[in-house]
Amino acid sequence: MNQNSKHDLFRRYPDNPILTVEDWPYKANSVFNAAAAEVGGKILLLARVEDFRGMSHLTVARSDDGINNWQIEKMPFLKPEPEKYPEELWGIEDPRITRLEELNKWAICYTAYSKGGPLVSLAMTSDFKSFERMGPVMPPEDKDAALFPVKFNGLWAMLHRPVPKSAMLGAHIWLSFSPNLKHWGEHHEIIQAREGGWWDANKIGLCAPPMQTKEGWLILYHGVRTTASGSIYRLGLALLDLENPAKVIRRTDEWIFGPKAHYEREGDVDDVVFPCGWIKKKDTVFIYYGAADSRICVATADFNELVDFVLSCPDHSNCSDWWKS
Ligand code: BMA
Predict the structure, then answer these.
(1) Chain-centre distance for alpha carbon 175
(2) What is the pLDDT of residues 290-310, one digit of tens each?
(3) Which end of the chain is less crowded, N or C, counting CB atoms within 10 A of the terminal residue's CB?
């Protein structure tokens, strides 16, 4: 391991998983990949719930401390309505929540599974009781999207992961801008999946929404390693410039968290850790992640350790495709 190794940044909660389908007030196959937000002094998770047809919807759970005593809504918050919104034909998956202070609302980016493939849809809410659909904002195939909480030069910004027609070209993280959250343009490819034997070769995607730090926007992303016995989903960090988020300042070489515990290694899809939300409370970051596409877990990290670590990683400011050489 080199000096930039750090496999103990995230500490698993000893009583993981914190939420499973056994806790659910109605019958379902699995609960996983939950978005997170702090709402009215509580931690709110918007969980992906997969039914026995294989289609997903989103349901709200609330807890005072973000770990115990979850109150789970008896009805879904956001469920597919393919008659009115055909892009939701095969379900709604993997939400990410961003607080937009300027609008006094939360924005929820989610994957709508359309006949043409997964795409990015956006919904707005001010109370997590009702919501307004903004509709699809990126065509298929595109997912793993989240908004930044602030505008840049008067434009909203979104990270997302389009997939090119040829898998050979790799699936990378892009940044796009919008004046009104509906019409998106000024697209930049900003974080590339690496190639060859890397843990994050060929396919990466944003996990939780970008977290603002004094040093830049902290990005948590997943990398997918394809092996003879399936894919392994692991996590890395990057840091984007505060003023110009198209500029990647740092990126971890090694993954910082991967499937190790039995509840991450075995499930409907083995060897997956898949966070969709993180919450900073004082100096502790709570990372909420789906484990093996079957259950919801939490890990904690020290905020300053995360920032110090990413700052100690290779400088990317002047690099393009440096890993190929
Ligand atoms: C990704 C997404 C996630 C899922 C992961 C592992 O493509 O569909 O929802 O957790 O695969 O199966």
Answers:
(1) 14
(2) 999 999 999 999 999 999 999
(3) C
Pocket test for ligand 1, best of 33, 109, 264 (most atoms within 8 A of CB): 33
pLDDT, mean of residues 317-325: 55
Asked if residue 94 has its Cβ within 6 Å of ligand 1, the reply is yes
**292 Cα to the center of ligand 1, angstroms:** 9
Report residue 138 as tokens: 């990126």
- Ligand 1 center to residue 274 CA distance, Å? 7
Ligand 1 closest atom vs CA 268: 12
The overall average pLDDT reported for the chain is: 95
33 CA to middle of ligand 1, Å?
Answer: 9
CA 147/CA 202 separation, integer angstroms: 24
Question: Mind listing the domains of the chain with CATH numbers?
Answer: 13-314 (2.115.10.20)
Q: What is the CA radius of gyration of the chain?
A: 18
Beta-carbon-side half-sphere exposure of residue 97 (alpha carbons within 13 Å)? 29
For 90-142, what is each residue's pLDDT tens digit? 999 999 999 999 999 999 999 999 999 999 999 999 999 999 999 999 999 99
pTM comes to 0.96
The minimum-distance atom of ligand 1 relative to the CA of 94 is 9
Give the model's pLDDT for residue 3: 53
- By most ligand atoms within 8 Å of CB, the mutation choice from 29, 49, 90, 94 for ligand 1 is 94
